[in-house]
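A reminder before we start the practical. When you read a complex entry, don't treat the lines as separate problems. The point of joint prediction is that each chain is placed relative to the others, so the output describes one connected object in space. Small molecules and nucleic acid strands, if listed, are placed in the same frame. In the example below there are two entries. Take a minute to note the order of the lines before looking further.
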Amino acid sequence: MKGFTIKISNISANKILLVIFAVLMVTIFARFFSLLYFPDSSKPLEKGDPMINLDAKETMVQKFVANRENLSKIEFLLRTPGPKPGDKVKVQVTDENCNKIIRTGNLEPSFLASSNLYVLSFAKISDSQNKTYCLKATFETQKSAAKALPFFTTTSSDPSFDVINITTNEQLTGRSLSVRGVYENNHWLQDFSELNQRMSQYKPWFLKHYFLGTIVTLFLVLSISLVVILIVL
Amino acid sequence: MKNISSIGFSKIPRCILALILAVFFLKGVFLVSAFPIFAGQDESRHYNSIQYLSEPKIKNWTIIPFKQLSKQEKDNIETYRYSDEIKQTSLATNTDILRGEEFNTIIFSNAYSGANENQINAHQWDPYNKNQYPDVVSGSIYHKIGSLFEKIFSNQSILFRFYTIRILSVFLGLSVIILAYLTAINVGFSTKNSLILTAIISFQPKLTTYFTNINYDVLLIPLFALFTYAGILILKKGISWKRLSLLFFSIIIAISTKKTGAILLVPAAALIISAFWPRFKKATRNIQYGFYIITSILGLSILFFLSKNITSNVTLSSIGDYLDKSLSIGRFALSSRTYWGSLSWVDNPVLDQITNIIWFMQTLAVAGFGIFFFSNFPKPSYLPEKKYIIFLIGIVISLQLGIRTADWIVFSQTGSLDLGTPGRYFLPNIVAHIILVFTGLGMFFEWLKTSKFIKALDSRLRGNDIGEKLFDFSLKISLILMMSLTMYIIFNEIVFRYYL
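Here is the predicted structure of the whole assembly.
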């Protein structure tokens, strides 16, 4: 009876630990899967001057070209402190002529701990490759004395891509918003393949492609096995 | 009735240790790849030191005098006093873009090779420093070892050489894991608990990431672990030439690696005196003289080291100012966060609380030590004896005092906390630290079982040792949490930051 009670308590404790471990692993890797989006790295965001200020209830427009399919997010660069609680920047993704609304949403702070990076997320636009879109951003606030939101800009060589405040008719000549498209793949296997590709660059041959894939797979399998073994034994 | 699992377990500890080592190695190699080139702590400087040592003795190229150099910015590798190869490689790999802002990555191509990778692999840049006063760390045995690899693979591209030396760091990390296990076993933990403690150490996030960088600390930390192990052996089995040699070997190589190693002289002196004392009283006069000589050598070494490193600019009166500025909650919190590897690269409120949870556990451990040392509460058999704990506490205190003394010396000379006390400076004590925390927790749980609630629970479990069960549970839950924290940091911080 004593041994049976000991065994019961051992099994219960180990089961609880295994459940906790499983929940944590699922949570962590579910979070990782949710991060598998690919910003356009060819366009590093820059904190360029002059900035364009967006006052309360004003709207600005910016043309933007997506360079691949499955456009899912657009990143914006704002100067700190950004929109205050209760304020929001509503962004519409429209056609090239800034007429037909394709997607809409609000800017949210990025998961990256950057006080400047804000993200507009939306359902992917599958056929976005080489298409020009118009981004319409409106600063919505309930506060009468809200400060203007400054957006960083970057050099623009094409006047049709200059940022324009359509409320005040102010066009910042030779400047466009510091924005960047973020894309996803159609399947998670393609996501892993692209991530492997990115991680393989500027590495020696033994840390590329299949070698890298093998290392990380073995690492995950063995580390999870190790913890399970140490829990149950 | 014997616990069936413990019988089975006792037959496979080597397999489990091998698994821990394999996981540490694979994790390390994966992280070696995940960190872009020159992204590690002071890595460009340490790698430049290795390249500098690998240069031909006769420098038959033009050295640009320091006065003729354009403005030097350490954060801008391309302009700094590094080798041509490092500067050109950093340009080719967009290191400036990566390091410029946290929201930018390098510019990726649509292939498994970077856009400029062929140019890098063409090996056309000189791995030589062509500026006067190159930024190098001098006098460390670590860089001499690194330069051996640099020379062996001199016909390979910088990518091959650089990442190979990073993998050398992973191998050095393996030695810490092995020594952690040996130390845990020899202080008296069971095989199972020793393996779990070793696994916990192997998953410590800062240790994990640090042993993927090119930095002389990756040699210092194993030497501290070796010193700890040698000290434990001396306490357990007594003085012998073999154990003394191990002890002094670790001290000499640690000092040859980094000045921090000199801190080990203090606990070494205390250990040898305490080990010799019983014999000393009974010894012949010759042996007593021999003991005086050894003690004098140790004492003179400490004084010599202090005199070399404390200049006339240092004043005792600056201690007050120093303590006022350095002993703040903010600085402790920063030190703690960086020790545990909190990168703060992502916006996660749970992660921000990790160090608070750890400090709570450590507070319980300190309470446990209070019970351990200042009460008549019996020590359970599954925890180490007092002499080992005193030795481990001594090493921890020595390193704390040593780092803070060095910080004070710099403060006294410059007036500001230029050196600081970042958490990584305290990593050499990781083995002692983890063993101490769990020993303290174990004592706390033993005391806790005297509480009414626990007694009631214990009686329902019909005599099962609840104190040991709580200790066992704490080890396993800590392992789960440590592993989870590291996984989160690897995938949702490091990989996210550099590639997504």
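Discuss with your neighbour: Chain A touches chain B through 66 residues (CB under 8 Å). What might explain this?
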